[in-house]
Amino acid sequence: MSTLDSVRESYQTFDDQRFAPLVKGVVLFTLLAALPFIIEIDVAGMELAATLSLKVLILTVIYAYTAQSWNIMSGYTGQFSFGHAAFFGIGAYATQKLLVDFAINPWLGMLVAGIIAALYGLLIGALSFRFNLKGHYFALATLAFAELLRFVVTNMSELRGANGYFKPFPRDYGAEYGLVAFQFQNDLPYYYVILGFLLVVTVISWAIKNSWVGLYFFAIREDERAAASVGVPSFRYKLIGVAVSAFFTALGGAYWSMYFNTIRPDTVFALFKNVELLLPAVVGGPGTLIGPIVGSFIVTPVSEVARTTFTNINGLDRIIYGAFLVAIVIYSPRGVVSWPSRARALWNRVRGDTEVSER
Amino acid sequence: MTNMDHQSPERDGETLLTVEGVGKRFSGLQALQDVDMTVNSGEIIGLIGPNGAGKTTLFNCISGAFPPTSGTVTLEGNVISGLPAHKVARAGLARTFQITRPLEELTVVENAMVGAHIHTRRRQEAREIALENLEFVGLSDRAEEEAGELTVGAQKRLELARAISTRPKILLLDEIMAGLTPQESNQMLGLFRQLRERGTSLLIIEHDMKAIMNISDYVKVLDQGQGIAFGKPNEVVEDDRVIEAYIGGFDVDA
Amino acid sequence: MRHLVTSVAPLPLQGGGLGRFIDPFAQFLTDVANMEPVLLQLLAFGLLLGGVYALTALGLTMIFGVMDVINFAHGVFLVVGMYTVWLVSTTVGISPFVGIPIAAVVLFVLGIGVHILTVEPIIEAPQQNQLIATLGVLLIIQSAIEIIFTPDPQQVELSLGSVQVGGVFIPLGQFYALLIALGTMLGVRAFLNRTDLGRKIRGTADNRDGARYVGINVPQINYLTFGIGAALAGVAGGSIALFQRFDPFTGETYLINAFVIVILGGLGSFPGAFVGGLIVGMIQVFGGYYLPGTTSQVLIFLLFIGTLLVKPEGLFGGANA
């Protein structure tokens, strides 16, 4: 038995333990928590921070978070939403509206925003599922519901039209910089807040996956009719998926509105926002727990680093990003998380190992 | 006399499933017309008929895949026709599909667990029920494999395990033996008998006449969407209308 | 990515209250009752715009109908058509009208190239992957245009003027664009109905598996369809360039409206695309006149959603490309 096999075997033994997911999660999030410091470590005169700034890390975790939220609906129940910018935008706008016009604390406003987004999600879901929209038609319907909001907001003076909101100072709503105000004077606390968000949505995703709800979700994704034949109420569970997913996506939008200074209809409701929000999940592996996180650490830095590196040629970064999108869906349609098993399959074939096929 | 009364005193057990005047029309085509039948508890009933007789359509009407256009179906006295499939399943009626529908990317045990969750939300409990039923159909050693990787024969057994994990009062099996080897078919017949002993009623569509005559307590014959005979297997095969329906219509090799 | 959005100019903020939603419709009805001449003018504008919109949707509906692929790059294909016409007319001095067929050829080649590189490898993959791949293509082409020609708006130098017909003012640029749109639609329809290749494409649209059985080379049909779809975008973009300024990001609005038209008219239906184009054109023109800001776009999306829900097969349902 080779060393590799024994390593794999002992990992398998570890993996079978009940506490394994907990250990993996703790390791992963400890690593993520240490990242802002890791990137500053000087290795042979080079430090990662030169290219990978804290800002990029924050963006990366934001998109890991939104992709994890999207995954609950689209990755698990298989209802591919191409309109999550609707929920993201609702999160940003409701939070800012309540904050600016009514001086309501963003933490509270964020929850209200989440509930509004969940209701909008239920509306979209109830209509689309009742009328049995599938595939392209469902994706286009979700996109239409998002675009609809973009134009509604653009034309509503109550939401400041195309000009959008400018984030107020904490003192404007009777708070001081800090956790309560949801505003900080430097980026590090912002990073830990969004990391906390990611932790929460990941734990909830894990809990869903490991309960009957998750199994029902996956059964619906695989074959709705078969699922219904053994008692899965697919309409109700698809609605649960939409609502939960919309709620958490809205919290992401709320965070966005508290981290950046301004929000406008054509930023938070942008056509391409729909893609950015879900892309890490598709790249990492839809339906998996780690996929959205891994995916975001691949996609977001590429786009951000390309943007900051090629400042002299405006647009080159997007060519690289576009090429990257094409390459990833062509060469890895099931996501990055499928790489280890694909590599193992390849390795086994190379070694002429027949153990797998004999089973 | 093969068109014996459905409530014949000869039949044991309580009436479980009643199909009354069920008809189904698809845009101009009358697929089913005025079908009556009953299944009593603990019975195995065969549903036979030439191709296109409406057997699967009747299954779909009973199991809630779509509502019948006329007539009613009751289970233990409660009307189930018109209910969506998941509610019919929760009322105690499970089915398998003619062309298997495994939840491909889920493991074998998870497939069965989906059925088991009808009774419990606790995952461990569902897993135990599922494993028990996989053991019953002889799939427990493949519990952790992806369902999509199973052979057709194994997928048929998985469908059975998934369906019985809902602990149904009555089980509708749509050509579950088609495509099985003679040995697998025999095992399947054994499972049917065991299920009956546990008190589950079975309504079976099958083309293998030998098997169906062997296992069924009673046989219902459909032809062109209508019930033409009901009776004990040996009686039904001698019925003139049945013979007529099968001449030219019955595929001998099936 | 932040450039991807064609920015909407900040609007004067409207007053509140429900009145602003009701008043425009009341105004419209009053105008109808009084038979205001402006209605005829709006109708003419709606027809002119709607015809061109129909043309922008034609290639999309064809690719959608035959290949079951949502081509997000369609909007940027339009933009390539615009820049081609602009380029040949400004640098070589060729008439923009000659530039339009050149744009069709350029797009046909580009379309086939895009198809072979990005769509073909994943034609059997989950639909979302095709969607993301064509979005990637959109980004690449759009940014390439931005780098080569700067993000500044361009314009084809063409002073065609306008004519007055019975008090209705008709800009000739738009009029010619409408004629091109109608001609192209009739031409493509004849091609699909009369030629052997056209019939094969329709057969594939009706039933991909069936087409395979009767010996149609489906992969070949696929790339021809993608090429023709892109060429149609070239013609559409070129026609738009006759009367409108454009920049690398112009395609996005047209893309979204083209989706609406495709669904409204019915997947793969040419008469549907025409009627859908007219509906969207009319809503935009009338909405632009009566409604504040871009509210007409809200109406378009409501109509879109309504169609998806109630009649997803569209007004001219059934796939007969």
List the keywords.
heterotrimer; A: 359 residues; mainly alpha; 2 domains; two-stranded antiparallel ribbon; globular; B: 254 residues; 6-stranded mixed sheet; 4-stranded antiparallel sheet; 10 strands; 34% helix; disordered C terminus; ABC transporter permease (chain C); transport (chain C); transmembrane transporter activity (chain C); amino-acid transport (chain C); transmembrane (chain C)
What features would you describe in this structure?
The complex is a heterotrimer of chains A (359), B (254) and C (321). Chain A has 359 residues and is mostly helical. Chain A has two domains: 1-50; 54-283, no CATH class. Chain A contains 16 helices and four strands. In chain A, a hairpin with a 2-residue loop joins strand 1 and strand 2 (46-47). In chain A, helix 4 crosses helix 10 (234-259). The longest helix of chain A has 26 residues, at 234-259. The two termini of chain A are 19 Å apart. With 254 residues, chain B is α/β, with parallel strands linked by helices. Chain B has two domains: 1-92 and 168-254, 3-Layer(aba) Sandwich (Rossmann fold); 103-167, no CATH class. In chain B, the strands form two sheets. Chain B has a six-stranded mixed β-sheet, sandwiched between helices. In chain B, strands 2-1-4-5 form a four-stranded antiparallel β-sheet, with helices on one face. In chain B, a hairpin with a 2-residue loop joins strand 9 (218-223) and strand 10. In chain B, 48% of the residues are buried. The two termini of chain C are 34 Å apart. At the A-C interface, helix 6, helix 11, helix 12 and helix 14 of A face helix 5, helix 10 and helix 12 of C.
Q: What oligomeric state is this?
A: heterotrimer
Largest sheet of chain A: 2 strands, antiparallel
The domain count of chain A comes to 2
- Biggest sheet features of chain C: 2 strands, antiparallel
Helical content class of chain A: over 70%
Secondary-structure element sequence of chain A? Answer: HHEEHHHHEHHHHEHHHHHH
Family (chain B): Belongs to the ABC transporter superfamily.
GO cellular component, one term (chain B): plasma membrane
GO biological process, one term (chain B): L-isoleucine import across plasma membrane
Function (chain B): Probable component of a branched-chain amino-acid transport system.
